Amino acid sequence: MQENTKHIIKAISFTIFVFSLLGWLYIVAVALVHPETLNIQLTHLTPWIREDTFGILCFITSFFSFLLWNLLKETEK
Q1: How many domains does the chain have?
Q2: What share of the chain in percent tops pLDDT 70?
Q3: pLDDT, tens only, 54-75
Q4: pTM for the full model?
Q5: Cα(20)–Cα(26) distance, rounded to whole angstroms?
Q6: Which of 12, 44, 50, 67 shows the smallest number of beta carbons within 10 Å?
Q7: Closest CA to 11 of 63, 68, 76, 74
Q8: In this structure, are residues 24 and 58 in contact, taking their beta carbons and an 8 Å threshold?
Q9: Dist. CA 71–CA 67, nearest whole Å
Q10: 65: containing domain
Q11: Could you report how far apart the first and last alpha carbons of the chain are, in Å?
Q12: Would you call 20 exposed, middle or buried from its count of C-beta atoms within 10 A (0-12, 13-18, 19+)?
């Protein structure tokens, strides 16, 4: 893989990690303050996704994007 492509993928994966981690932390805060709202839908635009499902998806996304970022960081050495 070209060095320029690695830098782009690394930057994108770190950005995805940060934003998905923030989404997960938001759901954690909601669970602490208003746990009764976790089973309602997140938005009217996507009726299939609930707040708790969004938290799970954010956690999984943050895990794998952080893993990818670390793997690409280790290959630079």
Answers
A1: 1
A2: 96
A3: 999 999 999 999 999 999 987 7
A4: 0.86
A5: 10
A6: 44
A7: 68
A8: yes
A9: 6
A10: 3-75
A11: 15
A12: buried
Identity of the amino acid at 28:
V
Q: Tokens representing 6? A: 């690695």
59-68 CB contacts, 8 Å cutoff, 24+ apart: 59/20, 59/24, 61/16, 61/20, 62/16, 62/17, 62/20, 62/21, 62/24, 65/13, 65/14, 65/16, 65/17, 65/20, 66/13, 66/14, 66/17, 68/9, 68/13
Measured CA to CA, the distance from residue 32 to residue 25 in angstroms comes to: 11
The rounded distance, in Å, linking the Cα atoms of 63 and 16 is 10
**Which residue, chain included where needed, has tokens 């309602």?**
40
What is the C-alpha separation between 48 and 37, in angstroms, rounded?
15
